Amino acid sequence: MGSVKKVPMRQCVGCMEMKNKKEMIRVLKTAENELTIDTTGRKNGRGAYICKSKECLEKAYKSKGLERSLKTSIPREIYETLEKEMKLLESE
After folding, report:
1. Assessment of whether the complete model's pTM goes beyond 0.85
2. How distant, in Å, are the alpha carbons of 28, 49, 74 from that of 33?
3. Where is the YlxR domain (predicted)?
């Protein structure tokens, strides 16, 4: 019997759908309460995941999904950085 590797699934804070962790962007709140975009998915801290789509980003912004997941207020710059990150991913 071949071993089936379990695919780590995460819920998008925008559309609330469960998707493969690798297909999503992770927003991280560190122990120092700094907010960053974790491109490696390995950094320590509380993470919230969002699909790589502008629609999900807009939904997360309107529903305050990131704020709820990370239990902190999210500055506009983080949303702008996420938007830039998504544009980069689209052009790849």
Report:
1. yes
2. 9, 17, 11
3. 10-84
How far is Cα 56 from Cα 14, in angstroms, rounded to an integer? Answer: 4
Listed residue (29, 33, 34, 37) closest to 57, CA to CA: 37
Q: Place 2 in a pLDDT band, splitting at 50, 70 and 90.
A: low
* Sequence spans of domains, the chain: 9-91
State yes or no: pLDDT of 44 exceeds 90. yes
**How far apart are alpha carbons 82 and 52 in whole angstroms?**
9
CATH of 9-91, one of 3.30.310.50, 2.40.110.10, 3.30.1230.10, 1.10.150.130: 3.30.1230.10
What tokens were used for 92?
Answer: 């790849």
The predicted structure's pLDDT at residue 91: 78
